[in-house]
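Anyone? Bumping this.
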Amino acid sequence: MTTAKTSHVDQTRALAGELAALVRPGDLLLLVGDLGAGKTAFTQGFARALGVTEQVTSPTFTLARSYEGRLTLHHLDVYRLDHLQEAEDLGLAELIDDGGVVVIEWGDAVVPVLPPDFLEIRLTLGDGDDDRELAFRSVGPSWSNRAAAVRAIAERFA
Ligand code: ADP
Ligand code: MG
């Protein structure tokens, strides 16, 4: 398991920004972790590195928002989904096929309706208020092939 540690929100954003350099059209990232873990903060750093200039906010009430950058970023938060059927209704499959990058907060909840090809990033709280641990798990070929590159980034945030 590849892990990293951050001790400031900007460090989490910076790590996300480095990962953004690895992404390709059609990529899927799942962000997992409790409220306040830093899933939206991660997405902000990721979006900025993709060239998104718009401010990325929590999509909790809108479920999905799209931003234009080097690639289109589809940012979803499925915390409020009551049924997997709603994920299908959101057009998740179409978003993933759209040629952009899809980032899903609370993504573990919708794994059954996702293609088995994604990078999962699990954020957990550390000892200090601003300490976070990030654990990276590649599922499927497209991210397994980039596991070494992910590890190289994570190692800089040890
Ligand atoms: P989530 O989307 O997981 O609910 P947010 O990203 O909205 O979480 O909130 C994370 C909160 O924790 C923010 O207020 C952020 O400033 C704070 N924070 C403090 N330290 C960190 C860190 N190391 N990484 C990410 N967020 C941090
Ligand atoms: Mg959030």
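Late reply, but here is one note on the structure posted above: The chain has six helices and seven strands.
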